[in-house]
Design brief:
Elements: H1 8-11, H2 37-40, H3 66-74, H4 77-99, H5 104-120, H6 122-135, E1 139-143, H7 146-159, E2 164-167, H8 171-175, H9 178-184, E3 188-191, H10 194-201, H11 218-228, H12 238-255, E4 258-261, E5 265-267, E6 272-277, H13 281-287, E7 291-297, E8 301-302, H14 305-320, E9 327-331, E10 339-345, H15 349-353, H16 369-373, H17 375-380, H18 391-401, H19 418-422, H20 429-442, H21 448-461, H22 464-480, H23 483-486, H24 507-514
Helix pairs in contact: 4-14, 5-14, 18-20
This protein binds iron/sulfur cluster.
Residues 318, 364-370, 393, 422-425, 427, 429 line the site of iron/sulfur cluster (SF4).
């Protein structure tokens, strides 16, 4: 494997010069330095802060109504604008990094084949990982589902008499409902990632896989901290808030009985695993207490250390538009006098591996790039999906857990394909979203009204003459019908937006008049 040197300055190739840093209009500090993402997003609000919209209401196993929760998010204009801008900022930073690496597409293709190869031979690599990790002095456990994962961790903690656990961010533990379970058995869990801690204190799930509190204004954070850790409710300065949280959390970290991390990549040939963070919080969780437990989804395995180089080069660039995370920590075995456990978790992954149209979703490295680029996600907020995973990757993973409950999610997409274009491991996300729609129809999980509407639209779109006649009729009707006929319960599209005024001339008639005739 040969990888050329990187960096825009070395390459001399810039496909999109308008994205160069010297044209960058991001916020600047008083001494002219570009502010990073968090600081740039912390500009004072000019208007009175609005109430933070909450996520989807979950009613047992009833299908999540993503549109209803998204409507509440859209109705809070400061939140919607900030959310859209922050995530689009990340998308643009990702583009700048990508254009600095001429072999970017080669890297994506390589990453995709590494992950696909590993998934095809997953059983062999998992056994190799188990043998090597055990030889390194790590205790290995296998969990078939979320409940088993939680019981195993509980047992380990009980064996050590542990009553408090510090934990770095892990989507797998969110999948397992880990915090709620631990609360039910009387063990205190303290999140060490700042965004995740904000969400924990606000009793909310993460709204994004990389930036869990990205939907919150800093005034929301000030309100949460004022209620939970006693800060000044009128002070929303980010440095003040971050320092206050640090002072409040640090004693809890130092006194914790056990630490827990997730994992970004687990290397079969060495039995080691890697956790990437920007705050060093995984290192605190792993190194302060003597007991370290790592929860690892079985799809996190890669065969060799050299494969890590490919994936690490893609991960942070795709996620945050930075060349690498501040900390890329390798864990090989227990610290001196300590104990390390790994829980390898399936929780539906084996079944997904057997789904011909959806198995490649297991390639996901949880970078969040598909979420940052998705126009629906950016304007509806992650909590509107009412699921562990939101945005485009959520649309294809969540129904594998519960096709009934998440049956509305695959329809929260414009199918524009931008998600697939930015995915560093080349998952065909938009095609899988479409495939899920077909699958949900087969499973009778699509409402009669939606099916009938789609069938009618299909009939119409397959007959050009009928389609043009219908458009002409609709244009006349839209221009003349009273408002209550257009905006009623049957027109769900018009619930949140105005139907645009029909143009005087359609593109087709313009083309007939101006182009066809001249041939
Ligand atoms: S699907 Fe691709 S872009 Fe989306 S989070 Fe996963 S790896 Fe990133």
């Amino acid at each position: 494997m040969s990888i050329a040197s990187e960096g825009a300055g070395d390459t001399g190739v810039m496909l999109h010069p308008e994205l160069r840093a010297d044209r960058d209009e991001a916020p600047k500090s008083p001494n002219g330095q570009r502010l990073d993402h968090a600081e740039g997003a912390s500009k004072p609000l000019r208007v009175r802060p609005e109430k933070q919209p909450r996520g989807a209401k979950i009613h047992g196993n009833r299908p999540v109504n993503q549109a209803e929760a998204a409507a509440r998010f859209i109705a809070a204009p400061e939140h919607e604008k900030m959310h859209d801008e922050r995530l689009w900022d990340l998308r643009q930073k990702r583009d700048r990094e990508m254009h600095g690496i001429p072999e970017w597409e080669e890297l994506r293709a390589l990453a995709s084949s590494i992950k696909e190869h590993t998934l095809v031979h997953l059983d062999e690599y998992l056994e190799q990982f188990e043998a090597k990790a055990s030889a390194n002095g790590i205790h290995l456990h296998w969990a078939k589902d979320a409940a088993e994962h939680n019981h195993i961790v509980h047992r380990i903690l009980s064996d050590h008499g542990a009553k408090s656990l510090i934990k770095s961010k892990s989507m797998l533990t969110e999948e397992c409902g880990f915090r709620h379970y631990m609360a039910s058995v009387g063990i205190e869990v303290i999140e060490t990632d700042l965004g995740e801690r904000i969400q924990q204190l606000d009793n909310e799930d993460p709204s994004h896989v990389v930036v869990p509190a990205v939907h919150k204004l800093r005034t929301d954070v000030a309100e949460v901290f004022a209620k939970t850790i006693g800060t000044d409710p009128n002070n929303s300065d980010v440095h003040y808030l971050a320092e206050a949280q640090r002072q409040s959390n640090r004693p809890l970290i130092l006194a914790a009985d056990a630490g827990m991390t997730g994992c970004n990549f687990a290397v079969a040939e060495t039995g080691t695993f890697v956790v990437c963070t920007n705050e060093g919080n995984a290192d605190l969780s792993a190194n302060v207490p003597k007991l370290h437990i790592a929860s690892i989804g079985i799809e996190k395995i890669i065969p060799r250390l050299e494969h890590l180089a490919v994936l690490i080069r893609l991960l942070s660039r795709s996620a945050l538009g930075s060349p690498i995370t501040q900390y890329t920590s390798h864990f090989r075995g227990p610290r001196d006098g300590g104990e390390m456990h790994i829980v390898l978790v399936d929780n539906g992954r084996s079944s997904r591996l057997g789904m011909p149209e959806f198995w490649t979703s297991l390639k996901c490295i949880r970078c969040g790039a598909c979420m940052n680029t998705c126009p629906v996600y950016r304007r509806s907020g992650g909590l509107s999906y009412g699921a562990t995973y939101s945005g485009p990757i959520g649309l294809i993973i969540d129904p594998t857990f519960n096709a009934h409950k998440y049956s509305n999610l695959p329809f929260a997409s414009t199918l524009n394909g931008s998600c697939s274009n930015v995915c560093p491991v080349k998952i065909n996300i938009h095609e899988q979203i479409l495939a899920w729609r077909r699958e949900l129809v087969k499973l009778h999980e699509v409402s009669f009204v939606k099916k009938a509407a789609m069938k009618a639209a299909g009939e119409l779109l397959s007959r050009p003459a009928a389609y043009r006649a219908a458009i002409a009729t609709a244009d006349v009707a839209l221009a003349n019908l009273p408002r209550f006929v257009i905006y009623n319960g049957l027109n769900t599209w018009g619930t949140h937006r105005e139907v645009p005024h029909p143009p005087r001339q359609t593109f087709h008639s313009w083309h007939q008049a101006n182009r066809r005739a001249k041939k």
